[in-house]
User: Fold this.
Amino acid sequence: MDNNIYAVSYKMRKELYSKIFSVSGIVILVILAVSLFMSFVLYPVCSKSDSMASDIPANSFAFVAPLLKSPSRGDVVLVQNYEQKKISVPKKVINNICLFFTARQWKPFTDNAGEGSKPVMRRVIGLPGDTIYIDRYVVFIKSKSDSHFLTEFEVIKKKYNVEVLVPPAGWDVELGAKSSVKKITLADDEYFVLGDKRISAVDSRVWGPVKQQKIKGKVLLLYFPFNKFKIF
Assistant:
């Protein structure tokens, strides 16, 4: 009788352990699948500033596609405009785990803790080969195939809102973001990006042209706040 009890107990423990291992395996596979999806296909990003208002207000959440790094004119992209410091593999693993459980909003080990070090959303205005200049916040573009300059909205077919406040009389146009930029021709791997809030956004007027390697993905969908839901 006792032997039968031990046999049944052993069988029950074996089945329990088997279920635990199976469930653990499924959970690990799900985490890996979601992590891979969010690393290479689509992941959420929070825009803390209002540099892309009014289309993308402060504290908005959007989905970014990291594989789309060759944007078209008018696209909104995620730009990482600083040199990243390398961190160790164990720290990267811990970061990825924390990013998974926080919807990619927090990680314990940062590659650069300085102010303004996080990626920002900006709109692509100039493509490789374009010649661009800005005169009192009005952007003029001449592509490789054109013989004359056109304004931003004559060249870009996508519809979006740009916020430019008319400065009062006597206003120093050098305050805030630059109101004018001299002619610049973009190299084969360079893009000219601007914030939609032109009077205060930090963008290519400050950084200069952005190399393609600095573009971390294309913004596809704004999903929060809900009243601003938009597909780009």
